[in-house]
Specification:
mainly beta, single chain, about 25% strand, 3-stranded antiparallel sheet, about 100 residues
């Protein structure tokens, strides 16, 4: 039985390619929307424009181990509990 408030760890890790197809997922284009799968089925990042006519970009730039994000691109992270923690790793000289 699953506890009412389980501690769940979900990964979107481009550096270590977790899940294995993450580098092949991207959202890019004017007003584009989409999702990026995690390593846990059903939990995704939602990507889209913050304002109209935004050139959305959430892309690995050719399958590399980092993600490029354009200004006014939103990334919605599924938070379920006030105690949830999110870790971001920035690539040196790329932020």
């Amino acid at each position: 039985m699953i506890p009412a408030n389980p501690n769940v760890v979900v990964n979107w890790d481009w550096q270590n390619n977790i899940p294995s197809a993450i580098r092949a997922q991207w959202v890019e284009g004017v007003n584009a929307t989409g999702t990026i799968n995690s390593d846990l089925t059903g939990i995704v990042l939602s990507i889209g424009p913050k304002v109209a006519d935004t050139n959305v970009k959430f892309s690995t730039n050719g399958g590399l181990d980092n993600v490029q994000v354009n200004t006014n691109t939103y990334v919605r992270i599924p938070i379920k509990d006030a105690g949830d923690t999110i870790h971001f790793v920035c690539v040196q000289n790329h932020h």
